[in-house]
Amino acid sequence: MGMPEIPPRDLGQAASPDFDALHFRRTLSQFATGVTIITTRTSAAAVAAGAPPFIGMTASSFNSVSLDPPLVLWSMAMRANSLPMFRDGSHYIVNVLSASQLDLCKRFATLKGDRFAGVDYRLSENGLPVLKNALAWFECHNRSRYDEGDHVIFVGEVERCGVLESHEPPLIFQNGIFSTTTPLEG
């Protein structure tokens, strides 16, 4: 028996998916990610209308891109109310959360209104909130944005970064569950 004949296909374009959105989401959920809170300033017009001075959102889409120049990326749903502030702002902070910051993660994922009320932070050189006890933080120039599907991909050029000198484990999200890391014996 020979190899089965594979029908030719135009490899210059993607084939239609052979799955539905629910299956895709479930499959993606198997990839464990760290959890971040992205913070920036609210526009002057929004503050004048009574909005809080800062906004932030929980994101697990963070990733490194390049060491030279230092670039990172993350993505945001196009339907997000805060998209204009992140799209139009010059800078933002990526705060990497520790396992002890689960409540903060949930607050920035769901709370409406001033998510910073009662939250401990300091201001960066550009006047943006760096969350207290974040394992690491990256202050980024909003270098480029790409509309792809139902999200916007943000690429940030890191101007400053820092790491918390502690042995606290990171907050991890996988299969719809928050957890943390446990070293494997190897």
UniProtKB/TrEMBL annotation:
- Look up the coiled coil feature and give its residue ranges: none
> Could you cite one Gene Ontology molecular function of this protein?
riboflavin reductase (NADPH) activity
Q: Which domain of life is it from?
A: Bacteria
Q: Where does the Flavin reductase like domain lie?
A: 28-180
Q: Which UniProt keywords apply?
A: Oxidoreductase
What's a Pfam family this protein contains?
Flavin_Reduct
What family does the Swiss-Prot or TrEMBL record give for this protein?
Belongs to the non-flavoprotein flavin reductase family.
| The protein, known as | Flavin reductase-like, FMN-binding protein
